[in-house]
Amino acid sequence: MASAAKGTMSKRGGRINITPFVDVLLVVLVIFILTSNASIPGIKVDLPKASSTVALEKPKTKAITIDNTGQVFLDAYPVTLTELEERLRAEKAITPDFPVIVRGDAAVQYAKVVSVLDLLRRIELFQIGLVTGKPS
Question: Domain 62-130, what fold?
Fold first, then answer.
């Protein structure tokens, strides 16, 4: 009986089970893929500085950018205010409560930012964030 147990141990001890290692590597790969795509698309603008900032980055976050010429972009695509309203209303029909961030260049006319904020109020979007840069 003892010799049978010894033979079983030698057969089993020769192989290494790599399944848990592969599972851990796949989880790390998925986390890496998700975090590498976590940035919000948009146009590069010179953001005004603020002393405190709050992150509003979520997968369904819509980014509205106003560059220094006053051109409005929705997720890096140029739009007019009418097109912006149509696209945001369509998104609201799919996802009623999604966050919106507004990125305005420091040199942009204040009236253009106010018109975008007024449009968001008319659509009844209430999760709005204004993006600022960190002070130097």
Answer: Nucleotidyltransferase; domain 5 (3.30.420)
pTM: 0.57
Supply the pLDDT for residue 82.
92
Question: For the packed helices 110-123 and 81-94, what is the interaxial angle rounded to 10 degrees?
Answer: 30
Paired sense of beta strands 128-130 and 100-104, if any: parallel
Q: Which residue has the tokens 């097109």?
A: 83
**125 secondary structure, DSSP code:** -
Give the residue among 124, 83, 108 at the shortest CA–CA distance from 75: 83
pLDDT in tens, 69-122: 889 999 888 999 999 999 999 988 888 888 898 888 888 878 888 888 899 899
Written as six digits, the tokens of 22 are 């592969």
Q: Which residue is listed with tokens 């592969």?
A: 22
Helix residue spans in the chain (DSSP H): 2-13, 19-36, 81-94, 110-123
How far apart, in whole angstroms, are the C-alpha atoms of residue 43 and residue 116?
16
Q: Where are the domains of the chain?
A: 2-36, 62-130
Virtual torsion, Cα 18, 21, 22, 27, nearest 10 deg: 160
